[in-house]
Amino acid sequence: MTATSTTTLAFADNDALLAVRFLLELTSLACFGIWAWRRTPAPWRWILVIALPVAVGLAWGTFTVPDDPSRGDPGSVDTPGPLRLLLELAVFFGAVAALHGAGLRRAARWLLVVMVAYQLLAYDRIGWLLSH
What we know:
This protein has helices at residues 15-39, 44-62, 81-101, 105-121, 123-131; strands spanning 63-64, 77-78. The chain is mostly helical. The longest helix has 25 residues, at 15-39.
């Protein structure tokens, strides 16, 4: 890498951190489903436990930054980096809030620690998003 190259992500594009990110994405979707199961009365619970994670996943996959090195395929809607960062933070930390709202406060605290640690490790991705 040359000293003038600024388009690559150094640490956040690491395979191990990308795998962690993927697991956090799946965990986030599951947390929204858990919240729906615990907080929605039957028969709506059955619908919302599927619909809410699907809606969040669709937003996640649809609104993307062009040429995002952490993505395998482009999304349908080109989105400015700062707006994508807000979406990512809403999904990741929304999952923490969902666990808390579902009454799983200890799990929410642990997930919060993991989410903050991931964001700190992916500081270069945050910078990349803010600059695109």
